[in-house]
Amino acid sequence: MIDKVGNFSITTPQPKKQSFLDKLHTYTKNSADMNDTVIVPRTIFKGYLGVMLGTTLVTLGGVFNKHPKTSKTLTASGLLASLYGTWAFVRPFIIKDK
Predict the structure, then answer these.
(1) CB 3.0–4.6 Å: which of 13, 42, 78, 81 could bond 58 by disulfide?
(2) Per-domain boundaries in the chain
C-alpha cells in the first residue's frame, strides 16, 4: 500500500484474537471426524461402563479397608461389574467370529 506521504508499506491482516477453546479446536479438528461416524455396538459401550464402574468400586473398597464388610462388599461388586464389563466388551467379537 502507498500512504499519503508516498511511502510503500506492506501490511498483513491481523489475525482475529481466538479464545483458548478456539485455539484448542484448531489443533483437534479433523475433517474426517465431521463426516465419518463410528457405530459402537451397545454391548461394547456397556462393557466399557462395566469395567469403569468395577474399577471405581474396587478402588472404593480399598479406601474403606477399615470397615471390613463395606470393603468386601464394594470389592466383590467391583469384581463382578468388571467381569460383566469384560464379557459385554468381548461378546460381540466372539459371536462375530463364529
Answers:
(1) 78
(2) 41-97
